[in-house]
Amino acid sequence: MWKDMLEKGVIPNSFTYTVSISSLVKEGLYEDAFKTFDEMRSNGVVPEEVTYNLLINLSAKSGNRDEVQRLYEDMIFRGIIPKFMENLAYMRMLTKHLKRQISVVNSPVRKHIWQWLKSILLQEM
């Protein structure tokens, strides 16, 4: 349908791109969803808040912290003030990352590494 639309000279707008991205996400075609998003921006079509929301949530669910950060910052750069849902996905992602970092710091492996480093430092004195 998308190709037919383009062949007939219909120029996609923000709404049609967002509907296409939403359909791709629902079908599990995540890479295609991001390609469509990139195409949208390269064609000069400004993404809407809904478009960002779809991709931020998708990236957060897949654990792609860097992509969440990039989308969130791009959204703000374009003057779109994140609302509750975008902030929630972003905060969940940061919290998940922080929990992982805390678990590494508190892990028994860390204690062994610290003891090993301490013994090396003491030997050099």
Topology:
Blueprint: H1 2-7, H2 14-26, H3 30-42, H4 49-61, H5 65-77, H6 84-105, H7 108-124
Number of continuous helical runs? 7
Shape from CA axes? elongated
Number of strands: 0
Amount of helix: over 70%
Count of individual domains: 1
CATH architecture descriptor text: Alpha Horseshoe
Work out the strand percent: under 5%
What is the ordering of alpha helices and beta strands? HHHHHHH
Biggest sheet record = none
Derived from helix and strand composition plus strand pairing, the structural class reads: mainly alpha
CATH domain class name: Mainly Alpha
CATH fold name? Serine Threonine Protein Phosphatase 5, Tetratricopeptide repeat
Mean pLDDT: 79
For the record, give the distance between the C-alpha atoms at the N and C termini, rounded to a whole number: 73 Å
Q: List low-pLDDT spans.
A: none
> Any idea what the radius of gyration is?
21 Å
CATH superfamily: Tetratricopeptide repeat domain
Describe this structure in words.
Pfam families: PPR_2 (PF13041). Belongs to the PPR family. P subfamily. PPR repeats lie at residues 13-47, 48-82. The chain is an all-alpha fold. It has helices at 2-7, 14-26, 30-42, 49-61, 65-77, 84-105, 108-124. It is built from seven helices and no strands. Helices cover 78% and strands 0% of the residues. The mean pLDDT is 79. Helix 2 (14-26) packs parallel to helix 4 (49-61), helix 4 (49-61) packs antiparallel against helix 5 and helix 5 packs antiparallel against helix 6 (84-105).
